[in-house]
Design a protein that fits this description.
By secondary structure, the protein is mainly β. The chain contains one helix and five strands; from the N terminus they run βββββα. The chain has a domain of 56 residues.
């Protein structure tokens, strides 16, 4: 199917998103890859067999992966109540 050298990963490969883009529609938010996978701007995917992969974007760079516990002062606690 793929004529690229080296060949693009297949649609069932773990690295399927590394296939070359053959149709890009940034105004609509999706691209068709050489292996038949449609990828969306939100990182969701539609595979050639009709199955889907939910968006799998990581946390935004400005949000820490782990949050430190917040210490509430007595004054702040009084305002919350």
């Amino acid at each position: 199917m793929c004529q690229h050298e080296p060949p693009c990963p297949t649609a069932d490969a773990v690295d399927r998103e590394a296939a070359r883009v053959i149709v890009a529609t940034p105004e609509q938010g999706w691209s068709l890859l050489c292996n038949g996978v449609i990828i969306f701007d939100d990182t969701g995917e539609l595979l050639p067999d009709g199955s889907t992969i939910a968006p799998h974007r990581g946390p935004a760079p400005h949000i820490p992966a782990t949050r430190r516990p917040v210490t509430v002062t007595t004054a702040a606690a009084a305002l919350i109540r």
